[in-house]
Amino acid sequence: MIKKVLGYIKKYQMIEPEDTVIAGISGGADSVCLLFVLLEIRKQIPFTLEVVHINHGIREDAVQDAEFVRALCEEWKVPFSLTEANIKESAREHGVSEEEEGRHIRYEAFEKALGGRKGRIAVAHNSNDRAETMLFHLFRGTGLAGAGGIRPVNGKVIRPLLCIRRTEIERWLAEKNLSYCVDSTNEQDIYTRNRIRHHILTYAESEICQGAVANMNRAADQFMEAEEYIVRQTETAMKDCVQAEPDGTIRIRLSDFFKEDRYIQGRILLSCVEKASGKRKDITAAHIKSILALFQASGSKEIHLPYGLVVYKKYDLGMIQKKELCAKSIQDEETLSDVYEVTVPSILNVPGLGRVEFTVFQWEYSQNIPQKTYTKWFDYDKITSSVMFRTKRAGDYLTINHRMGHQSLQDYFVNEKILKEERSRIYLLAEGSHVIWLPGCRISEYYKIQESTRNILQVCVLDNPE
């Protein structure tokens, strides 16, 4: 075990002499193994070891886990620090899943513990975790980076046990007579990853191919190497066709851009959007496809992306810039006071509705869709441009049935006998001319939750009549 891990650490240059290594130790089998492996590795590579434990505030017995890790550190004279958080409450406040919020709080605590010192953050993912993550990403749609699963080194974060299987860890702990805590939630199927672990990977190993996890990890290494190569190729291609302005505007010379392979074109656009916004989490393949279609088409259309970005053509240039920098005026009869652009997460004050809250989270099949008039869920993956709360415009329409048939908003108002004098005062949620939701009335069939849905946009009228 130690020899194997040491070779892995050296292969990826995870730890250098005189580093400070902050180890995230939960008290479970993997993390206890990590702690004792690092104590052994420290005999060959001199570094400072410190432990950080996070109490997520989810399980009542989590306090016992913290005390177990504290006692372990006292026994082996390793500095220990504890971070306590209420993940459920914090996740609600930030409009994200508990899993995502927990990860954010953990790594924030690790970064704080490391401070400005030279060193690394060590976490206890093993090869089974990598295989589970790989499948998770593949099932939900991913590129090469996601297919590579968990990386051995990601910035300051290192994963020394990524070369070790979970069974090897448990066997090694038993041989060393080392005890550890058992998280009861790991045995439950309440999380997608647990279902993959308990049912899919277990079946694959026993019924399809013994050694499936090891084979998947070798494939993940190849995906990771391919991704690194594509990144280098993309950076080279961007030097020939992309110009970034000091104000954040991205200019793409389309004549040179379309000389590149189509796959590289997509990677260039993804990189450009990330440069313009500073983020890429909410940018999907559908967004990139829309930009490509826009650049290939004639005319002067524009599309709106998350993070307040506008994409349009200017002669032979493809332009990506923040909305406030875009000189294009709004070409309809509405005024700016009638338009409320949605950002996520946020709370807007909308006339006639009051406070409206917007959050996005990952879809779990076990979740029940709320049957409330003023709390609605929408398929966030189908939203490819900016979403607005606004009054009606010419050309607005709804998707009214499963065959994706359309009905103009005007016809809907007439059929529902909504008075003319009231129609201009009704605020609706829309993506372009496509009406997503008429609060209190109906939602578009197109944006409803389906089995293929990965991410949900929840819109909740906080000051609702209910």
Describe the structure using short key phrases.
22 strands, alpha+beta, 21% strand, six-stranded mixed sheet, 466 residues, 39% helix
Overview of the molecule:
With 466 residues, the chain is an alpha+beta fold. 39% of the residues lie in helices and 21% in strands. The chain contains 15 helices and 22 strands. The strands form five sheets. The protein has a six-stranded mixed β-sheet, sandwiched between helices. Strands 7-8-11-10-9 form a five-stranded antiparallel β-sheet. A five-stranded antiparallel β-sheet has the order 12-16-19-20-21, with no helix packed on it.
From the alpha carbons, calculate the radius of gyration and give it in angstroms.
Answer: 26 Å
Intertermini distance: 60 Å
Q: What is the count of β-strands?
A: 22
Question: Beta-strand percentage?
Answer: 15-25%
What assembly state would you assign to the polypeptide chains in this entry?
single chain
The helix-and-strand class reads alpha+beta
Helix content class: 25-40%
Number of helices: 15
- What is the mean predicted local confidence, pLDDT? 86
Strand sequence of the main sheet, in spatial order?
A: 3-2-1-4-6-5
The general outline is: globular
Segments where pLDDT lies below 50 for 5+ residues?
A: 327-337
> How would you sum up the major sheet?
6 strands, mixed
Question: What's the arrangement of secondary structure elements?
Answer:
Blueprint: H1 2-11, E1 20-24, H2 29-41, E2 48-55, H3 62-75, E3 80-84, H4 87-94, H5 98-114, E4 119-122, H6 127-140, H7 144-147, E5 153-154, E6 157-158, H8 166-175, H9 192-208, H10 212-241, E7 242-244, E8 250-253, H11 254-257, H12 262-277, H13 285-296, E9 302-305, E10 309-314, E11 317-322, E12 339-341, E13 346-350, E14 354-362, E15 375-379, E16 387-390, E17 397-399, E18 406-408, H14 409-415, H15 420-423, E19 428-431, E20 434-438, E21 442-443, E22 455-461
Helix pairs in contact: 2-8, 4-5, 6-9, 6-10, 10-12, 12-13
